[in-house]
Amino acid sequence: MSNVKNEIGLPEAVSIGIGGMVGGGIFAVLGLSVELSKGGTPLAFLIAGILAFLTSYSYARLSLFYPNTGGTVNYINKGFGENVFSGGTNNLLWISYIVMLSLYASAFGSYGAALFKITGNFGTDKHLLISLIIIFCTLLNYISFKAVSTSESIAVFIKIFILIIFSGIGLWGLKGNNNIHQLALENWVRPFKLISGGFVIFVAYEGFELIANASPNIKNPLKNIPLSFYISVIFVIILYILIALITVGSVPFEKISKAQEYVLAVAAEPVLGKAGYIIISITALISTFSAINVSLYGGSRVNYELAEDDEISHEFTVIFWGEPVGLLVTAILTLIIANFFNLESISTSGSAGFLLIFTIVNLANYKLAKQTKSLKWISLLGAVLCFTALIFLMVQQFGSNFTGAVVGLLLIILSYIIELIYKKNKSKSKQK
To answer: Measured between alpha carbons, how far is 78 from 192 in angstroms, rounded to an integer?
Structure first.
């Protein structure tokens, strides 16, 4: 039983899901989505959101009947047993955390550099900012998790409040904007590319799975666990569609293309002027900073749990400076990916990883449907659509972003190869 003092209600659980999704994702991938889907960007976000909503059903049922702070790792092991397949998938989860961290850090660097440029007479190198924020957040995780959790709570409130205000004012300002014609059907790309555009930015939705990690502490779980998943996902779908409508309807496509990595700040300018640009840029910095903080913590804990479950080397259970050594490893790998790969490649890799993970979680709930008292067809539909989305994404990216597609595919394959080698070596050691 969880400690009553640590129990959280429905509003807190919903805020975990919303905070996890509206982390750094929307700030990082909005411009990329518009670049790929043009006038159909709102529909692309809706398509990705439908996949997230279907998958949230499986997470809600699994969280209700198997509450565990291990979340996704636990559900995959429950569904498929502790074997090479489960271990490889859980390795992929850790790697996907690293990719997400890289995406957030890249967004922080882009918005930071753009903000310095507009507010002063000098610029700051994007990669310098990327490296500094990763190092700073790593040190903060080592020094005090309380500071990490407190900063996240404050950041969630700030970013949601500002984005809601931005959406309200932005919708009002659309009526007289000269660029609203960009939303017309003739400015939509062909269906295959539009749908693929939704899947490339799927990473913007993955954060709802963080509710699963908090499931043992949620009060009145029978009611609040499912509601927390569904409310948070539906809220974020609506928010993303509104933001996409405002961006496409307010800013010329050419300008969006030039400012792809910090386009939300540019979208605020037609409505709120330079002040809007600065406010959204600061919001992006706060949001991505908090997302890096909690994702570093989450990634290191996934890594530690995998080592404890004997799915990767026990060397990762070593405590360094009061924290698992996986925190340091996660930070170093994030520094490398964030500085050496472009935004589209990072987003593609992250989306591919989570689409496969969500396919497997849906299948796990399908297999455990009797135990979780689930409607099997919903989980099966979620699994089929997530896997179809993965195929769509890889086919489209092989044609337009070969490097990103290869990196995404290699990360998936590498996750399972590492697990296979580890299990084989361990088996040989036991025999000896």
So the answer is: 36
- The answer to whether 364 and 80 have CB atoms below 8 angstroms apart is yes
The residues with which 183 forms a beta bridge, in sequence order, are none
**Using CB atoms within 10 A of its CB, is residue 234 exposed (0-12), middle (13-18) or buried (19+)?**
middle
CA dist., res. 169 & res. 359, Å (int) = 38
Averages of pLDDT over each 10 residues, the chain, 432 residues? 59 84 78 87 92 95 89 90 89 89 89 80 76 90 68 75 86 79 88 82 85 87 94 94 90 86 84 84 86 79 78 75 82 91 82 92 96 95 93 83 84 90 77 64
DSSP 262-289: GHHHHHHHHHHHHHHHHHHHHHHHHHHH
Q: Coil, strand, or helix at residue 81?
A: coil
Helix (H) or strand (E) holding 319: strand 319-320
Quick check: pTM over 0.70?
yes
For residue 9, report the phi and psi dihedrals to the nearest 5 degrees. -90, -175
Query: Where do the domains of the chain lie, and which CATH numbers do they carry?
Result: 4-427 (1.20.1740.10)
Length of the chain: 432
Helices then strands, each counted (H, E), the chain: 17, 2
Listed residue (210, 308, 234, 221) closest to 50, CA to CA: 234
